[in-house]
Automatic annotation (TrEMBL):
Domain HTH asnC-type: 4-65
The species this protein was found in: Stakelama tenebrarum
GO biological process, one term: regulation of DNA-templated transcription
Plastid as UniProt keyword: no
Coiled coil: none
Protein name: Lrp/AsnC family transcriptional regulator
UniProt keyword terms in alphabetical order: DNA-binding, Transcription, Transcription regulation
Top-level taxonomic group: Bacteria
PROSITE patterns in the cross-refs: HTH_ASNC_2
Presence of the UniProt keyword Transcription regulation in the record: yes
Amino acid sequence: MRKIDKTDRRLLQAIQENALLTAEQLGEACGLSPTAALKRRKKLRSDGVIERDSAVVSPRALGFDIMALVMVTLDREDRGVIDRFNQDIRNTPQITQAYYITGDADFVLFIVARDMDEYDQFTREFFYDRHPIKTFKTCVVLSAVKSGGALPIPD
């Protein structure tokens, strides 16, 4: 694991707030010259600390009025079933986040749909037709209190 120093922390905090900072703005945020700040950011990328740059897009602005957290329990838990389920999750754009977890369920999925009819159709096709699912429980999101995924940067 790469050691994160004070300058890295400032850089990471700045780009989590705005990944589009200019070299000058980034340098100012972390106390370096623009060139040194860009080199530092490049090194954090190559070391795997920065995985990717992305935009946080509002689901509702794109017409996805249903956002759901779904806890899924597989009927069978052998390596092949889990690998196929993981691959299908990666290839399904309606599933925007997915986690293989411990506890009562096997997976937690974040799924978007335009309306309940579309969500119902999705669950029939994805859960009932394609995978050995024992159970799934849906929690519909009423409002996003905090989203975007910025991490706290430890000292």
